[in-house]
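Researcher: Structure prediction, please.
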Amino acid sequence: MKYKANNYFIDGIKTSFLAKKFSTPLYCYSYKKIKENVVNFKNDFNTINPLICFAVKANSNKKLLIELRKLGLGADVVSMGELMKALKSGIKPNKIVFSGVGKTNVEIDYAIKNKILLINAESKSEILEIEKIAKTRNKKVDIGIRLNPNTDAKTLSQISTGKKENKFGVSEKIFLELVKYVNKSKNLNLKCVSVHIGSQILEIKPYQKMLKILDKIIKKTKYKFEYIDLGGGMGINYGKNKKKLNLKKYAENIKSFMKKHNSRIIFEPGRSIIGNTGFLISKITYIKENEKKNFIILDAAMNDLIRPALYNAKHQIIPVTKNKKKSKKTHEFVGPICESTDKFLSVKKFQKLKEKDLVIICDVGAYGMSLSSNYNLRPKPSEILIKNSQIKIISKRQSLKELM
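Model: Predicted structure follows.
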């Protein structure tokens, strides 16, 4: 992805051509970058040979899941819909882990019927529900128990999952009690301890702290876990932030940890696999000037990409066609939705723009389309994948007729 003669190209294809052919707003993914991310992730952790289960919540497009399956990934799911999508994408049940705090009896029953690798339970009530369903089906079901390690991931409060005030997992005391309970059950087979401390983590220290706590608690259980699910949460560089998580260092820490606990490691990466592979191409509808700044009103909105409104997340915005003219005013990129939070980014010293120009919102592969909605009765955008210089439509643009 780079500029050639001041025009931006994605995998060798001119962005302006994509916008003209498929209209805007438009999600575009780079297969080359997806493959590169998967290969790099595997290489970083090759000394521990983990089972990599892609977090479907990050991006649930079936065509992308098929590509990830071909690259050897399993799936981490948090709903029956995600489980069905993973299975329909050809991901084998023995490479699927079911997470989440509120699994219904219908979802649990479906997971049991499909013989997935693990149901990671997050409360005593859920374990009792799994046990009851397993008993009626006369089966022994493989489960994990999610521990809340009370570890601060030093990230946004909205995406923190490993502190004691978060709803996820169980405390050490309850975890130890549940290990004893499940170990005596005739219908449950305890195979895994699971942890996941948050998302968009860019420092190694929270993971190191998590491993120390996990080591201590596993020793207390005196139980041999076949799997240790370390979750995901690995962050990416949004915009011009050059901070990068040292995955090789994390792998070394895990290798030392595994000398004491000879278990198979499971990872649940989402953002680190798909985040920087996606672009949202948008056209400027209007430019509204006031004394202090220019409002750059795009045809993309918070229904297409809600992360800035939901988390105050910052996605870099770049012009499709470069020029050398700098604007003296701040540019505030906003959408047309009737909410003050429908804005993407404020930028000083951006180049001069005019109406109908194209811009790209970067790094939207994770939690972009998967969090999109029809708010303001706006149709969802189309998604395309560029693979080996071929353009594939992987989801069609919704029509107003469909919404009606």
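Model: The two ends are 38 Å apart (CA to CA).
Researcher: Thanks, that helps.
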